[in-house]
Amino acid sequence: MLGNLGRSLTDAMKKMAGMAVIDKKAVKEIVKDIQRALIQGDVNIKLVFELSKKIEDRALNEKPDKGVTASKHVITIVYEEMVNLVGKEAHPLEITGKPYKIMFLGLQGSGKTTTIGKLARYLQKKGFNPAIVSTDTWRPAAYEQLKQLTEELHISLYGDPENKDAVDLAKKGLEKFKNQKIIIFDTAGRHKDEQDLFDEMKELSSVVNPNEAILVIDGTIGQQAHDQAKAFAKTTDVGSIIVTKLDGSAKGGGALSTVAEIGAPIKFIGTGEKIDNFEVFDPSRFISRLLGMGDIQTLIEKAEEAVDEDVAEETMKHMMSGKFTIKDMENQFQMMGKMGPMKQIMNMIPGLGGKLPKEASKMTEDKINQYKIIISSMKEEEKLNPKIIKHSRIHRIAKGSGRKPEEVKDLLKYYKGTKKAMKGLGKRGLGGGQMGRLMGQFMK
Ligand code: GDP
């Protein structure tokens, strides 16, 4: 849905979920990504800048609640501000009064007739039996389209292709269906000129006196939706909006955000040509899906669950200072087991992706498991001071873990290589403290 907008935003969120430090630079980078995505999605530039400013201000000034990671904090801010952008709360359609008169408005081609069918079906599923009145005297096919649709759905329709008086049709329809619970009025989407169309809407609106006027807007027109909605709002008190064609439309984000500004809530969205391609619009659910929150939540949870922060920091400190022991290596394996392969984890940390010591990147899960078993047969003093592991100890450990002495030697070799590489990494710019902090933050 919404073309690439969802993908770009999800990518930005994923990038942030993987960031170890969320400083000013990181926030600015994320805000840039979001801006780029929204502008490409035809969201009004003014709205984009207002949104970015809010996100930036909040991300830099609001302190996360205790126990909430910096990345989760910023993701939540982005989510909240995006929800505000498309209308804050869900406004479900409520049928009050009888007959409940719904008048549809919208330009020809916006998807009005299709959407009437979708809403009728939706109401049917809720146990209502709506009737439809066709007042579109300009498009001959409109009546036929509705006739076919209502026959399929077994819904009553009133219309008369011979009658060219929309107001008269509305009056007769109203009379015919006065005992129905819900009456839906279809109206023209085109006239000889626009002003005539708007005049007719005004007149129809005073005759029908709708409980709810629903404006249908084509989502593919992007931010132009704003002017269109405003023009219709002058003729009738628009109570709600349905944005159509959001399936794959690159400009849908623009339509949604600009329409939300009008003040009438978006109640439904159209997501395809079929009768069931219709959804109740709930800003929180919609944005959470758009941002890929499900995936990101998992990523964050994975990092949160992973390890005891103190153990992580201590391990990293040892790694960097050259005091790295087999005990630390065991902790490291534990972290890997919980968070996924080391290479993948390191890739999520900006600036570290390519710098993983060769020994660590070659590790496979099988190998890690094998090493864990061997280490479990070591004594504490051996883990803390691996230098003492010589010939007889190697044989004892091998026997205890059901492994060959060569495999124990292999582990010791891996340990020494990692220790050396980690020490080098610490010296090469990424200081131990910085690296420890990175890992510590990431594993919070
Ligand atoms: P009307 O002139 O406003 O009554 O528009 P129609 O209902 O005849 O729809 C115009 C075109 O838009 C038709 O080809 C519909 O199938 C298509 N359409 C309507 N809603 C959607 C939608 O949500 N997604 C897509 N992809 N097409 C839609």
UniProtKB/TrEMBL annotation:
Binding site for GTP: 106-113, 186-190, 244-247
PROSITE patterns associated with the record: SRP54 (PS00300)
Catalyzed reactions per annotation: GTP + H2O = GDP + phosphate + H(+)
Domain of life per record: Archaea
Complex and partners: Part of the signal recognition particle protein translocation system, which is composed of SRP and FtsY. Archaeal SRP consists of a 7S RNA molecule of 300 nucleotides and two protein subunits: SRP54 and SRP19.
Described function: Involved in targeting and insertion of nascent membrane proteins into the cytoplasmic membrane. Binds to the hydrophobic signal sequence of the ribosome-nascent chain (RNC) as it emerges from the ribosomes. The SRP-RNC complex is then targeted to the cytoplasmic membrane where it interacts with the SRP receptor FtsY.
Name of protein: Signal recognition particle 54 kDa protein
Taxonomic source organism: Methanobrevibacter curvatus
